[in-house]
Amino acid sequence: MSPAATRRYVVGFESWTKYQTVVLASNKQVAIAKAKALYDLNGLGDFSISDGGEEPWHARYLGTEVQS
C-alpha cells in the first residue's frame, strides 16, 4: 500500500441508537477523527441511523483502498 493510499471505513457512535457514516482514512484512528469532525460540522446530516450494540465510537475497514 502506498503512503497516499486510503481505505474506506464505516465509522459511528451510539447513543441508544447507532449512527454511522463512511469516510476515507489511512487507519481507524484517522477515520474516527474524520467522523467526529463531520459530526461537529454537520451534526447527524452525514450519518445513517440504525439499532446497535457496539462501543461508543468505532471504525470498521470496508476492504476497499482508494488511491489519492
Biggest β-sheet: strands ordered side by side in the sheet:
3-2-1-4
How much is the average pLDDT?
76
Structural class: alpha+beta
Rg measurement, Å? 12 Å
How many separate domains? 1
Q: What oligomerization state is this entry in?
A: single chain
The helix/strand series, from N terminus to C terminus, equals EEHEE
Q: Provide the low-confidence segments as ranges.
A: none
Global outline: elongated
β-strand percent reads over 45%
Percent of residues in helices comes to 10-25%
Give the terminus-to-terminus CA distance. Answer: 12 Å
Number of E-state strands: 4
Summed up, the helix count is 1
Largest sheet: number of strands, sense, barrel closure: 4 strands, antiparallel
Architecture blueprint of SSEs:
Layout: E1 5-15, E2 17-25, H1 28-42, E3 48-50, E4 57-67
Antiparallel strand pairs: 1-2, 1-4, 2-3
Key terms:
68 residues
Give an overview of the whole structure.
By secondary structure, this protein is of the alpha+beta class. The protein has one helix spanning about 30-40, and strands spanning about 5-15, 15-25, 50, 55-65. It starts with a strand and ends with a strand.
Compact summary:
The protein has one helix at residues 28-42, and strands spanning 5-15, 17-25, 48-50, 57-67. By secondary structure, it is α+β, with helices and mostly antiparallel strands. The chain has one domain.
